Amino acid sequence: MNKLINYAKFIAIFLILELLFTFFVSLLNLLGLNSGITTIIIFILNIILFFILSFINASKIKKKGYLEGIIIGLIFIILMVLIKIILFDNTFSISTFIYYLILLLTSLFGGMTGVNKKEKQK
Questions:
Q1: Residues 103, 42: contact at Cβ < 8 Å?
Q2: What is the DSSP letter of 116?
Q3: Which of 17, 37, 104, 106 is an S-S bond match for 73, by CB 3.0 to 4.6 Å?
Q4: In the chain, where does DSSP find H-type helix?
Q5: Whole-structure pTM value
Q6: Nearest-angstrom CA–CA distance, 122 and 103
Q7: For residues 88 and 85, what is the distance between their CA atoms, to the nearest angstrom?
Q8: How far apart are CA 72 and CA 27, in angstroms?
Q9: DSSP states of 27-47
């Protein structure tokens, strides 16, 4: 039960930050920034978000960081896919698969790094 509450917290944080990122990038797009650049910005922000949230989650769990990274990454990707299907009704392509694979690998790496984080000696 404690793990479910932990995952629910990370899902809430993810959704709030994802909405803020999308709003920020939409404003940049309205100000005249090229849509190709805004796509790259949102991709980089998603990579950072996946890494940081997996890092924090795994550092709290302190065991099997790769598994925690995969679990949290898959949860976030499933949320992103569901939102994309519901709101945009887009088809799935190889570039979309590669996008989600990169995010999953980033989450895995964040989880492994979070577990291996060394506490500072006092």
A1: no
A2: T
A3: 104
A4: 2-30, 35-61, 65-88, 94-115
A5: 0.81
A6: 35
A7: 6
A8: 29
A9: HHHHTT--HHHHHHHHHHHHH
| Residue 55, amino acid | F
99: tokens are 């996008």
pLDDT in tens, the chain (122 residues): 777 888 888 888 888 998 898 898 889 888 888 888 888 998 999 999 999 988 888 888 777 878 888 888 898 888 888 888 888 767 778 888 898 999 999 999 998 888 887 554 44
Residue labelled with tokens 């797009």: 29
Tokens matching residue 75? 């949860």
Taking the CB of residue 93, how many other CB atoms lie within 10 A of it?
A: 9
